[in-house]
Structure prediction request, 828 residues.
Amino acid sequence: MISCEFDRRRFLQWTGASVFGAMSAQLSLETLASAASSSSLALTTPILVLVTLYGGNDGLNTVVPFTDPTYHSARSNIALSSSQVLPISDTLALNSSMPAIKALYTQNKVAIVQGVSYPNPSLSHFSSMAIWQSASPANAVSTGWIGRWLDIQPHNPLNAIGIGSVLPPSMVGQKRVGSMVALSGIQLPWGPIAALLPRLGRSSSSDVPLEAAAASSITDLFSTARALGPLVSTSPTGSLLSEQLSLVSTLINANVPTRVWEVNLSSFDTHAGEQADQDALLSEVDTAVSSFMTSISAGARSNDVTVMIYSEFGRRVMSNASLGTDHGTSAPVILIGNTVKGGLYGEQPPLNALDVNGNLKVTTDFRDVYGGLLHDVLNTAVSDVIPSWKTALSVH
Amino acid sequence: MRPAPSLAQRLATARLLHRFNFGPTPGQYAELLQRGFGATQATVLERGLADPGLDSVVAPVLADLGPIPQPDTPAATAFWNAINGGSTELVTWWLDRMVAANHPLTERMTWFWHGHWATAISKVTYPLPMMTQNNTLRKYALANFKDMARVMIVDGALNYWLDNEDNYLSSPNENLARELMELMTLGVNKFTQDDVTAAARALTGYSTNPSNGMVTFSAKQHYSKALNVLGTTSELNAESLAALILSKHENTKFIADRMWFRFVSSSTTPPATLARSFASRDISSIVSTLVHSAAWSEPRNALVKSPVEWFVGACRALRVQPSTLSAVDVQWKLSQMGQIPFNPPNVGGWPYGQSWLSGVAFQYRFELVEDIMTKGDLAPLSVPKSKMVQACADWLGVAEWSRRTASTLEATGTPADMVIAALLSPEYVVSA
Prediction:
């Protein structure tokens, strides 16, 4: 059984006081409806798809330093043998559960940024995911990086969309929040009351901020229904990553005016029995992302889409006796797209120079990865979203 | 007859009922507004009294189902049917208790502690150890937190959930030790990685029978040398580790902050006196301090009702026992909203606040209201049409409708439609 101690909703606790202040702008239904119907996304406009892996994916068994004897000695009970990996260089290989991503790598469509984290990495799921989603390691801030990007865009409730029901903190800004779409489809209220309910979404001068946010979420349902309803399946489904990404590819190919998408997969917290669990999870990632890329590549937006796959931390170099690994630090970030310049970026952290807790050192700051995506995909200066951060790592 | 209650009093009274008692039963809000705020404070704190509502809820009888049978056998089919049936029954049982309770504080606190010691059946698999843990949380819900922690640290479901059955002497598994300190007792950054490693050693030697949650201790498998945890060096087992951690003053602030956050406000910080009221770790004292705090008339202290809190509140108001609805429908819709009892998403428990306010959540709230309405008792709206909108606020425990909502309610054609709109309104979804 896959363990599920940590996933996105746990992390959402972090949002707390912060999210409180942010509300979707108070727009009338009419404005939303016209925005949604009139603005299909112009071809060649770039699109970002964030794939969040909750729980701390073991980077060393994802992009494997398979020739390093220290790798095999430090985690002899879970180290992958040469038959369990797919080499991508003389020293590194992908987990063999990722054959389709390996094939994309061979076509130079996969960039792997190595050793990614931030200074003094936190070993707490909760704190570390908050840092990744807020892009603020030193100070806890109330907004997410995509939320701050939303704050400086012309308002459109469809600018950023997450799949599911619970809003991810990355999409919470000071003024705006992203929208959510359920995998099970958009079902508007029915019956005689249906025509009246949109009125509950109007703002009222007596609203406290949370009431205003509740009202705006009602409006949000009607606006996403108008724009996306016919495109979204209404049959109940599961929540696996493939289904989420399949929905996203459908919507992207329909040219909905959305620049950022968020999907996620949980249960990467492999303290025990790691190999079988992680293989299954990476296999899900591999199938989901490669099917998504096939669908995108067959459509008109083949060159518009960049996928980023990340987790809140990697795991300890040395395994524990329960065939698992405890919380760690840096790990690879994987970027995929037809216009991505494939290959290895940054430096692989050495296994013989660990920090005091036996964890990998950090060789790339994740804000550089965000910087590249903000510039290349979201056409925004990095410092407009991550104050005082100026550097960027471009994979385009 | 007292003068008409002020808006501040209506607000404070509604907040206490929604936050500590899962919302008012029909007539209760209006009655307490008449009796005054002191009576409201006393009422929401009631416990240990005769409770015919709770007595009417029959607990499921869960068997120890033993090891998981080989797949694709008749035994496996029977086993998984028993697991699924028992799990569904367990959720319905607890929802029924929350709705039926005449004095709901203990159920409400059990719900809070479930989110605190967040253990999920998604991994534990067996409903029996989940029910055992639930009864432990209920037993200690308003007792001393030191006692609760001492018992919970050897709770079978928690140990299995956090891999402690895989915590071996040769190379400890840190999962339980870290989350115990970070999420359950002290808070992040109140301990070091060395403390985690040492605490994990203190927790070696405990094995859990997953099917019944029995935890047994083997001295041979336990790390017997002295360990340095949080600055103290001593030989430690689970109980003495719990006592050592609970001796730290950081624990009082951590629990006090968390309770403030979940009961009072996620946008303001508690007064320093709150942690002091938890110095003895007596949970009933801090709950009483919260109920008697000056925070309740402060407009900023709004909270979003979680999906379960919203659903239970609506059922209490409409006198609908969840077990009279389709369990599969109700539980599927709650899970679509992201919250089903016994299955928190992870060890950190459920999110809160604006995270629950998506258009998708509204969609499922509507569907749940439609289910509730099939059995709902609308008698409180049997008043002249001109008084219905106000009667609806007095019934559901809403301090005041906004003009938006009042005009929407006035436009509805039937009492049933008015209730649907009221339960979906921002004023009801949020405990403003």
